[in-house]
C-alpha cells in the first residue's frame, strides 16, 4: 500500500489561515493538472446568481469556462452570462484599465446587478493592472459593490482560488448588510454550491426541522443574503478544503462557531443536522431534529432494502476531491459498497485522516492523478465501479468500467436522505446496465465456445 | 427490475414539485427589489430595437463569446499526430479547461499536460517548469513526440521555447533526437483556429527540417504519387472517414496531415491507451514531395498553406469546408486537378442520390429564414448549403471572422457569396460580434431556424427558435460529431437534421387539422 502522502508543504489544511509560506500544494509540471486559482475563485462565487461576473483578461478564460458548471439557480440567471473584457495584444501593451472601467459601466447600466465581481487573470496580473483601484472608483461612482477577486491562474491550484474567493467575501461582502429584523437566527452553509440542486434538498431538510438558513455561501445565493452572513448563529462548512478559512475568520471576527459536516450518507446528514441544532443551543430544535432524523432514517432503511441487496459487497474506486473524498465513503458504506481505492490528491490532512477513519487497511490511496494510476487500482483491486469526475469518465468508458459522475458536471443530487437513495439507484442502474456485459464479451464468432444465450 | 423500482426524479423534474416551487418563491425576498412588472418591462426592453442599437454600440465588454483560444486549437492539431503528447506551457488551469472542453465535445479523454507555472515562474521565467515538465511527462505518458504550445502567461513574460528546449537537451532531460515541436499561441491574439494553424505548421516544419530530406528533394520513394490533405480544426470525426472514402474512390494515395479522428473516436476495448491513430511522424518529411496539397479550411490554415507553397513548393488548393452539393463539387474538382484523375462514377451516383433527397425535402425548406454562427470556413460552407436548398441566411455572426485568405477578408467572401443568389439578399454578416449581439438580432428580426454550436442555445431559446447544432462545441447532444457533414453524404446528414427539425416544429405547433401523417 502506498503511504498517505506527507508533503512537507501540505501539512496545513489549505483552507486555514496558514502563513504565506505554506500555500496549497504546488502543482507538478508535466502532469495533466486540474484547474487553476482563477477557476477556483470563479466557481466559488459564480453560484451567487443575481451578481454579474466579469472576467478581466483575454477571451479564453471566460470563453473556456462560461456555462460549464451545473450549479442551479432558482431564479436569476445573470451569473450564467459570460462577461469578459477580451483583452487583445494592444491592450496588453497599453493597459486594459479603460476597457475594464467601460465594461463595468456597461454591465451596471444594462443589467442593473446588485454587485459585480471582477476576476483578474494571469495576463492582467502580469501586466500590473490596478484592478482594486478601478473597482473601487467604479463602485463609488455607480453606487453598487464592485468587488475585485485577485486570483490569477498562476498563483496556484483551484483550491487556493477557492480560498482567495473566500477572502474577497470577507473583505468586501460579509458584514456590509443587515437582515430584516424578522429573520430568525440561523445557519450559514459554507462551501455548498447547489450542484444538481443539492442545496434545495438540504434546505428542505433544514426547514422540516425548523432550522433557518441565514446565508448560502454560495449555492443558489443572492448577493444581499451574503452581506448579512455575520448575523448567523452557526457556520457549517460543507466543503472543508475550499472555505474553512472563511469559517475560521468568521469565528474570530464575529464569534460564530463552526463545524465541518457533510450531507452525503444518512449518518453524516443526521450528524450535521444534530450539530446545527446543538450549536444553535436550542433544546426544542434538537428534539425536532431527533424526530426528523429518526423518521427519515427509518423510511430510508425501508426504501433502500432492494438496492442494498444488489450493492452488498460491490467494490468501488473513488476519485474525487475535498469533502467528497471521505463523506462519499460513508454514504457508500451505508449501501454496503466497499471502497477499495480512494484519491487523496485534493484532500487536506484532516480529510485524509477522515478517509482513514472510514476505510479498512485494504484500501489503496491514490495520491496523484493520471488515468493510468486510477485504472491500475481499478484492475488490481478488482473494483466493480469507478466514481469520479467528468475528465475521467471517458477513460472509464474505454475500459468498460461502470462509472458514476460525482463532480460538478453531474445531473443527480446525492445529498441528504433522498440523495442517498438516488445514489443507490444510480449505482444499481450503472452496475446492472446490459451494456457492460455486451462490452466485455467478444463478438460471437470470436468465442471459443459457441455463442449460447 | 423495473417493477420494484422506486421512482426518484432527477433535477429535471424533481424541482418542479410544489414544495420546491414554494421554496423558490420564498427566496425572492432576497432578490433585487424589482416587481414582476418591472422585470417584465426590462425583459421586453432587452428585446427591443432600441436596445439592439445600444447593444451594437457596446465596445468594451464581450457577453457570451463564441470563440476559444489558441492553445485549444493547438492541442487538437497535436493530437492529429502519432503518439504525440500535447504540452501547454503556462499556468495549469488553461490546460484543464482545454481537456474538459474537448472531452465534452467528443465524449472522449484528452491527453494533454501542463508545465503548471506559478508565481515564481512569473518572476524568474518558466524554464525550470518546462524542463521538469518535459522530464515528468515523458516518463509518465511515454510519447514519441511532444508538441509544445504557450499560454498568455508564458507569452507575457516572454519565455523562449526554442532555447528552453535546447537547455533541456543539454541537461540530458531529453535526448538529442527526441522530437519536440513547438509554437507560440498567445490567447490574446486570434482564436482556436489560429492556434490550430500555428501548431500544424510548427509540427510540419519541425519534422521536415530535422529529417534531412530537404537536402535532396525528389529523392523520396513516394515522390509525386501522394496527395496531402488537411482538414484543419475539424470538430467532426465523421468528416475524416468521409474524406477518406472520397479519396479512396478516386483511387489516389494520400497523407492526411493532422488526423485526430483516431484519438477522438477510439474503440472501447477494455484497455485505454493514451494515443490512437494520427499521422505517422515519418510521413511528414515525405509529404514535402507530394503531388500537391488540398486544404479544406483555407481561413484556418493560412500559415500552414503558406509554408507548404513556399517551402515545399507545392500547389495548394485551398477551399472552405466542402458542405452541400456545390461545395463537394468543388472538392472533387480540386482533387481531380491535383491528381489528374477523373471524378469516379461512384461519387457521381452518390451525388445524384443526394440531389434526389434534396429535391424531396425542398418544399419544407424553401424560404426558411436562418441565423448562422460558427468559424469562418464552416460558415462559408453553411451559407452555400442553405442557399442551395432555398433557405435564406439572415443573420450571420462570426466572432473570429477577422481573417483573410489571399487578401480577401472572410466578410467580403461571405458577402460576395450571398450576393450571388437571390436567397442571400436579406443577409448581414457580423464579424467580431458575440452571442449577445446575436440574441438582439434573433429577437428584433426573427428567423425560422438557428444553426450553430451549443452555445447558441440560450439566445435561441430566448427567441423561441429551434437550434440545429452544427460546429464546435456541441456539449449537450451526443454523437453529432460521428456523422460527417462534408461531402455528398454530409450534405444528406445536414439535410436530414434540418428538414426533420422543421417537420418536428410543424408537428409540435400544429395539433389540429394539419397534424397529418404523410409529409
From TrEMBL, chain A:
Nitrogenase/oxidoreductase component domain location is 36-428
Coiled coil ranges (UniProt) are: none
Q: Where is this region: Disordered?
A: 1-31
Matching InterPro entries, A to Z? Nase/OxRdtase_comp1 (IPR000510), Nase_comp1_CS (IPR000318), NifE (IPR005973), NifE-like (IPR049939)
Identify one Pfam family in the record.
Oxidored_nitro
Q: Which UniProt keywords apply?
A: Nitrogen fixation
Give the record's pathway.
Cofactor biosynthesis; Fe-Mo cofactor biosynthesis
Say which domain of life the source belongs to.
Answer: Bacteria
Name-wise, this protein is: Nitrogenase iron-molybdenum cofactor biosynthesis protein NifE
Which species does this protein come from? Paenibacillus tianjinensis
TrEMBL record, chain B:
What is the reaction catalyzed?
Answer: N2 + 8 reduced [2Fe-2S]-[ferredoxin] + 16 ATP + 16 H2O = H2 + 8 oxidized [2Fe-2S]-[ferredoxin] + 2 NH4(+) + 16 ADP + 16 phosphate + 6 H(+)
Report the cofactors.
[8Fe-7S] cluster
UniProtKB keywords = ATP-binding, Iron, Iron-sulfur, Metal-binding, Nitrogen fixation, Nucleotide-binding, Oxidoreductase
Q: Does the keyword Oxidoreductase apply?
A: yes
Q: Which Pfam families match?
A: DUF3364 (PF11844), Oxidored_nitro (PF00148)
Its EC number(s): 1.18.6.1
* InterPro entries noted in UniProt: ChlB/BchB/BchZ, Nase/OxRdtase_comp1, Nase_comp1_CS, Nase_Mo-Fe_CF_bsu, Nase_Mo-Fe_CF_bsu_N
Which note does the record give on the cofactor? Binds 1 [8Fe-7S] cluster per heterodimer.
Q: List the molecular function annotations (GO) for this entry.
A: nitrogenase activity
Q: Which residues form a coiled coil?
A: none
Give start and end of each Nitrogenase molybdenum-iron protein beta chain N-terminal domain: 1-55
Q: What class of enzyme is it?
A: oxidoreductase
Q: Where is the Nitrogenase/oxidoreductase component domain?
A: 69-502
Q: Give the multimer and partner information.
A: Tetramer of two alpha and two beta chains. Forms complex with the iron protein (nitrogenase component 2).
Function, as annotated, reads: This molybdenum-iron protein is part of the nitrogenase complex that catalyzes the key enzymatic reactions in nitrogen fixation.
Report the sequence similarity comment from the record.
Belongs to the NifD/NifK/NifE/NifN family.
NCBIfam families recorded: nifK (TIGR01286)
Protein name, per record: Nitrogenase molybdenum-iron protein beta chain
